[in-house]
Write a structure and sequence with these properties.
Blueprint: H1 2-8, E1 27-31, H2 39-45, H3 47-50, H4 54-59, E2 64-68, H5 73-77, H6 88-94, E3 117-119, E4 126-128, E5 141-147, E6 153-158, H7 161-176, H8 186-189, E7 199-206
Parallel strand pairs: 1-2
Antiparallel strand pairs: 3-4, 5-6, 5-7
Length: 207
């Protein structure tokens, strides 16, 4: 029982001792470098010259030598304090938004959709796109062609959006003229000609 009561007894408070600081010692702080001469020997050699000063004699100063750590690779790459996580809005603002390429010869810029989300016309669900920095010149992506008039949507994959959209437009015209009969994109090419001006091309994911 004595051992249990001793274990439950709070530990005695330790008194903090005040360690006096010798204000007479003034450090000479230098950045360390292996090519430096023996600075300590130089300081000891010319210490009498330094102490000839009336101020140094009155204060009885004792100069000492101290080195600071030089800048190294670790100090350049590692921060002393880790910053907290950025809010989601700040992280999203750092990502470049999708934008058309701006080439005068590009036929895709006029119908390029720069939204970062897409909504299904069938289910009404909204999905975030993985299209940061996408443009007409993006390689290997999943795209959606949407009609703002009738709500029709077509999904495809390509490694050249500009060429792919040009082929779609050529196939649309060929299908209407009866020149294109064998195709896997019949639903897209049978789209009414009145809605052609309202088609938009949107990249939803970049590989």
């Amino acid at each position: 029982m004595a051992h249990i009561s001793k274990a439950l007894r709070p530990p005695p408070r330790r008194e903090t001792r005040h360690i006096p600081v010798d204000t007479r010692k003034i450090p000479l702080v230098l950045t360390y470098h292996p090519g430096l001469p023996d600075t300590g020997a130089i300081l000891r050699k010319f210490k009498p010259v330094l102490l000839r000063s009336p101020v140094a004699q009155k204060l009885n100063l004792q100069p000492i030598l101290s080195f600071r750590q030089p800048t190294n690779l670790e100090s350049r790459l590692v921060r002393a304090r880790l910053s907290g996580p950025r809010p989601a809005s700040a992280r999203e603002s750092l990502k470049p938004s999708p934008s058309p390429c701006g080439d005068k010869r590009c036929n895709l810029c006029s119908c390029f959709n720069t939204n970062t989300f897409i909504s299904s016309k069938v289910t009404g669900n909204r999905f975030n796109c993985v299209n940061a920095g996408a443009s007409c010149k993006t390689r290997w992506c999943i795209y959606v062609i949407s009609c703002d008039s009738c709500g029709c949507q077509y999904t495809g994959c390509t490694n050249n959006p500009r060429l792919r959209m040009n082929n779609h437009k050529s196939a649309l015209e060929g299908y209407r003229l009866g020149k294109l009969t064998q195709t896997n994109c019949r639903l897209l090419y049978s789209h009414p000609s009145a809605c052609e001006s309202s088609l938009s091309f949107q990249i939803v994911q970049v590989f």
